[in-house]
Amino acid sequence: MASQRPRSQQLDILVQLHLLIAQSLPLLPTLYHLRQTNHYFHTLLPPPTHTELLAAETSPFAIAHNLYACRYCLRLRPGHTFADRMLRHGRGRYGRKQGNRFCLECGVKPREGGSEARYALGDLADNLDVFELDVSVQTEEKVDESDSLKVSIEIS
Questions:
Q1: Using alpha carbons only, how large is the chain's radius of gyration in Å?
Q2: Which of 52, 11, 18 is nearest to 35 (CA)?
Q3: Cα dihedral 74, 76, 78, 84 sign
Q4: 57 burial via Cβ count (<10 Å: 0-12, 13-18, 19+)
Q5: Per-residue pLDDT in tens (0 to 9) along the chain, 156 residues
Q6: How many Cα atoms occupy the beta-carbon half-sphere of 77 within 13 Å?
Q7: Rounded Cα gap, residues 102 and 73, in angstroms
Q8: Considering only CA atoms, which of 37, 8, 2 is closest in space to residue 22?
C-alpha cells in the first residue's frame, strides 16, 4: 500500500499556496475583496496595515471610489464618512498629515482606556454631503405674500 501524506500536511500546503498567491495580489480591490469573501480568507490573510491603506488610497480604484484610510478602524471608507476637515489641507489624500485622519464613526467612539471621544458634544464636525431641497407648495386657498412656510429638516 502506498504511503500518503497526512491530511494536516496537505492542508498546510494548501494554506501556504493561498498565502503565496495572496502576496502577489494588489491590495485594492482584489486582496481587500478576497479577505471579505469568507471566514477562511478573513482569518488567513492578515489585515492591511495603516501604511498599506495609505498607499492603497492613492490607487486608481480608491480615487475613483473616493476611498480614504481611517487610522483607528483601519478601513478604507468613502469620503462622506469623514468630517470635512479630515479630507482637506494636510489630512487630504496627499497631505503631510494624512496618517492622522479618522472617520466620524471613530471620532465619536470613546478612546481606548475609557477616556472621552475625539469629538465631543458641540464640536463642529461638518460633513461633505450637501443636500439641496426644492419644495413647491400648492394650496387651494389664496395665500398672502405675508404668509410664510417654515420647513425644518433633521437628518440623523
A1: 25
A2: 18
A3: positive
A4: buried
A5: 555 666 677 778 889 999 999 999 988 889 988 999 999 999 999 999 999 999 999 999 999 999 999 999 999 999 999 998 899 889 999 999 999 999 999 888 887 776 777 776 666 555 544 444 444 445 455 555 555 555 555 554
A6: 21
A7: 8
A8: 37
